[in-house]
């Protein structure tokens, strides 16, 4: 790989794996809880680093989905943050796993509205909206996605 490649961590990050992930990534795309955010911050302070993160909004209807509520994200983004070890770069969301395009579009519209609201508040470095995957990325782009995850189109479907 080129020396300037930048790796992103996508997926659920367990706090006991931070030391295996954080030294190598430029962005953690899926911070889904205050506990994880605090653990990343503690690791960053201990290693004199600033970690870029996306806060995951709980979008999908499935109970198995992770993430913050809109109110929790607003609180995190608008609170006076004393530590400088975390840089909230934007939002990430996973739409419901469904063929119902209207439902997915509604979920993308919801996260887009929250993203625009936070961005309009003047939050520094808030520039990333990561939504959409191989099956729905065109719809995500229509709703302001600045980053999409197209693994299936590149690597093929998962074999279980």
SS summary, helix count? 6
Bin the helical content: 25-40%
Q: Could you give the count of β-strands?
A: 6
What proportion strand?
15-25%
Shape: globular
Low-confidence spans: pLDDT under 50, at least 5 residues?
Answer: none
Strand count, sense and barrel status of the largest sheet are: 6 strands, parallel
Mean pLDDT: 90
What structural category do the secondary elements indicate? alpha/beta
Order of helices and strands: EHEHEHEHEHEH
**Strand line-up in the sheet with most strands:** 1-2-3-4-5-6
Radius of gyration using CA atoms only: 16 Å
Distance from first to last alpha carbon: 28 Å
Description:
The protein is an alpha/beta fold. The protein has helices at about 20, 35-45, 70-80, 100-120, 135-140, 150-155; strands at about 10, 25-30, 50-55, 85-95, 130-135, 145-150. The protein is about 35% helix and about 20% strand. Strands 1-2-3-4-5-6 form a six-stranded parallel sheet.
Record the SSE blueprint.
Blueprint: E1 8-9, H1 18-21, E2 27-31, H2 34-46, E3 51-57, H3 70-78, E4 86-93, H4 101-120, E5 128-133, H5 137-142, E6 147-149, H6 151-155
Parallel strand pairs: 1-2, 2-3, 3-4, 4-5, 5-6
Concise overview:
The chain is an alpha/beta fold and 160 residues long. It is built from 6 helices and 6 strands.
Brief descriptors of the model:
160 residues, alpha/beta, six-stranded parallel sheet, 6 helices, 19% strand, globular
């Amino acid at each position: 790989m080129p020396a300037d490649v930048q790796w992103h961590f996508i997926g659920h990050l367990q706090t006991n794996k931070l030391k295996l992930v954080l030294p190598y990534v430029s962005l953690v795309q899926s911070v889904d809880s205050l506990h994880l955010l605090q653990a990343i911050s503690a690791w960053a302070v201990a290693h004199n680093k600033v970690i870029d993160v996306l806060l995951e909004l709980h979008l999908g209807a499935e109970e198995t989905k992770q993430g913050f509520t809109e109110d929790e994200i607003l609180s995190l983004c608008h609170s006076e943050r004393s530590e400088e070890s975390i840089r909230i770069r934007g939002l990430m969301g996973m739409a419901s796993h469904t063929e119902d395009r209207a439902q997915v579009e509604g979920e993308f519209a919801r996260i887009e509205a929250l993203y625009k609201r936070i961005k309009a508040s003047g939050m520094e470095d808030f520039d990333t909206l990561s939504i959409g995957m191989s099956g729905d990325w065109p719809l995500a782009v229509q709703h302001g996605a600045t980053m999409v995850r197209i693994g299936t189109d590149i690597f093929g479907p998962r074999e279980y």
